[in-house]
Amino acid sequence: MRIANLAGRLVLLSGDGAVDVERASGGVFSADPQAVFERWDEFTAWAGQADVSGAEPYAVGDLGAPVPAPRQILAIGLNYRDHATESGFDIPQNPVVFTKFVSSLTGPTGDIALPEGNVDWEVELVAVIGRRAYRVSAEQGWDHVAGLTVGQDVSERISQFNAPPAQFNMGKSFPGFGPLGPVLVTPDELDDRDDIELGCTLNGESVQKGRTSDLIFSIPVLIERLSAVMPLLPGDIIFTGTPAGVGMGRTPARWISVGDELVTYVKGIGEMRHRFVAP
Ligand code: ZN
Description:
Layout: E1 2-6, E2 9-14, E3 17-20, H1 21-24, H2 40-49, E4 56-57, E5 63-64, E6 73-77, H3 81-86, E7 96-98, E8 105-106, E9 109-113, E10 119-120, E11 123-129, E12 145-152, E13 155-156, H4 157-161, H5 168-171, E14 178-185, E15 197-202, E16 205-211, H6 219-227, E17 237-239, E18 261-266, E19 270-277
Parallel strand pairs: 6-17, 8-14, 9-19
Antiparallel strand pairs: 1-2, 1-5, 1-14, 2-3, 3-4, 6-7, 10-13, 11-12, 11-17, 12-14, 15-16, 15-18, 18-19
Bound molecules: zinc ion.
């Protein structure tokens, strides 16, 4: 199953078309894309037998973040060996956890205002919680995931590292620094939910390409480790980390400039396209 946020309304995708969930369900489910995760099991049961014959074409530019207002955003640093190495850190023994504040979220297309500083790209697979998870084992981890989407953990490196200690939450939370989309895909739609290709291009040049099979802490292990401390709530999201190829890891370092176009993809889910503009 694939769902999306079309101009602020929850839609179920079918082929190239979209079905408005509130209308198709006769009002049983709300149009609010964030509300569906509270009733995820009920919703997936309905969607499995829903009449999608009225699916209508839609414009990709009208898609918003499929998870627009999560209560908690968790993000994992240094979760691929090659990226930890390029960043000059040891391989972590425990997940490195930070947040991106919710006001940083944006949709899968459009402009992002470029703040002063050294702005960098980080393609990430994002997991969305569909069932409350508290003290869950890794073996049960996937059972708590509603779906997966594409994320960009856009990062301004000066404010990220300027304290010390590092201030990841700040450097990664400028407006527009948390694009999500274009759609949410349930894990069963993917050939192998534990081995997914992801990458991004800057002005058409491939800058990152990796596979989630190289994650140090996999999605189910992250759910075990995070839920050992806090309940993960329906509609919460986890940015799972980025592979090698960020601008910070290059010699010389490379940063995003005004006018640059960043395309971010996860195979089997889709791609996002953003232009960086003067603030
Ligand atoms: Zn990241």
